[in-house]
């Protein structure tokens, strides 16, 4: 068991006891049931890329780890991480990482929360649990994932974890996706005094900023929709100056 505690059910407003533990292949039927239920309610199917039973088996038994939140015997939330190595679906290939760097990549895969228990910050908390495990492994330096530009809760989750939007492209079924990542060893230092806010659906402007080595680092939502906050990397001089101020 990784964690136990209490959370509120947004449907009946009652408090329930839960546990979070590592899943094994015997839990796959429950994961598939949860996955199918959530997808049946989702209006925009492009928000979530589901995994097959074989893919879940691969992650749980060979090349990753999956954790799940249970209330009683029922699964209500899942989050998984994959260590892709040289596989073609290594997200770092989108950034032209070297062969050596590909082996240092961990990527957050499926993340699902039953609608009744959304609002408890479970997506971020469970992703953080897996990210902390990655930090303990000396072989891994880069944490990656992808997120839809239209999926505000997921954008909020990944940016709150310190992952930066670094590419906007077509992936999976030719769906729009942000590629986001974090260098755990040497995180990006951004000049947030030069922040530019852009609508998440204004792709041309975002591509322009990304080509100029701006990175998406946060977000907010207003009456006009989702806004992504972009900033350029700090120069070496700025970093040295800031470090000098801290002494």
Structural class: alpha+beta
| CATH architecture assignment of the largest domain | 3-Layer(aba) Sandwich
- The SSE order reads EEHHEEHEHEHEEEHEEH
Largest sheet: 8 strands, mixed
N-end to C-end Cα span: 42 Å
Q: Give the proportion of residues in helices.
A: 25-40%
Using only C-alpha atoms, the radius of gyration works out to: 19 Å
Low-confidence stretches: none
CATH class of the largest domain: Alpha Beta
Number of strands: 11
Shape: globular
Oligomer: single chain
Mean pLDDT: 92
Strand content: 25-35%
- State the CATH superfamily name of the largest domain: Gcn5-related N-acetyltransferase (GNAT)
CATH level-3 fold name of the largest domain: Aminopeptidase
Number of helices: 7
How many domains make up the coordinates? 2
- Biggest β-sheet: strands ordered side by side in the sheet: 1-2-3-4-5-6-8-7
Question: How would you describe this structure in keywords?
Answer:
alpha+beta; 7 helices; 11 strands; 2 domains; about 250 residues; single chain
What's the short story on this structure?
By secondary structure, the chain is α+β, with helices and mostly antiparallel strands. It is built from seven helices and eleven strands.
Structure description:
With 247 residues, the chain is an alpha+beta fold. The protein has two domains: 3-187, Gcn5-related N-acetyltransferase (GNAT) (Aminopeptidase), CATH 3.40.630.30; 188-247. The protein is 30% helix and 34% strand. It has helices spanning 28-41, 53-63, 99-102, 122-136, 152-160, 203-211, 236-246; strands at residues 3-8, 15-22, 64-71, 74-82, 105-113, 142-147, 164-171, 175-183, 196-199, 214-222, 225-232. The strands form two sheets. An eight-stranded mixed sheet has the order 1-2-3-4-5-6-8-7. Strands 9-11-10 form a three-stranded antiparallel sheet. Strand 5 (105-113), helix 4 and strand 6 form a beta-alpha-beta unit.
């Amino acid at each position: 068991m990784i964690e136990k505690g209490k959370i509120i059910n947004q449907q009946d407003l009652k408090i329930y006891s839960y546990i979070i533990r590592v899943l094994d292949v015997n839990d796959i039927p429950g994961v598939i049931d949860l996955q199918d239920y959530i997808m049946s309610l989702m209006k925009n199917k492009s928000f979530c890329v589901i995994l097959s039973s074989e893919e879940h088996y691969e992650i749980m038994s060979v090349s990753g780890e999956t954790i799940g939140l249970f209330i009683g015997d029922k699964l209500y939330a899942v989050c998984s991480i994959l260590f892709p190595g040289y596989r073609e679906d290594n997200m770092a290939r989108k950034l032209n990482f070297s062969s050596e760097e590909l082996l240092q990549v961990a990527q957050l895969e499926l993340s699902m929360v039953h609608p009744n228990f959304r609002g408890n910050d479970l997506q971020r908390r469970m992703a953080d649990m897996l990210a902390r495990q990655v930090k303990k492994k000396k072989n891994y330096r880069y944490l990656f994932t992808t997120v839809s530009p239209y999926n505000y809760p997921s954008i909020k989750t990944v940016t709150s974890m310190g992952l930066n939007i670094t590419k906007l492209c077509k992936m999976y079924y030719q769906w729009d996706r942000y590629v986001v990542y974090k260098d755990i060893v040497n995180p990006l230092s951004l000049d947030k005094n030069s922040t530019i806010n852009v609508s998440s659906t204004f792709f041309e402007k975002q591509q322009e900023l990304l080509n100029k080595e701006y990175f998406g680092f946060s977000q907010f939502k207003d009456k006009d929709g989702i806004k992504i906050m972009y900033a350029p990397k700090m120069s070496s001089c700025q970093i040295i100056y800031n470090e000098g101020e801290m002494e």
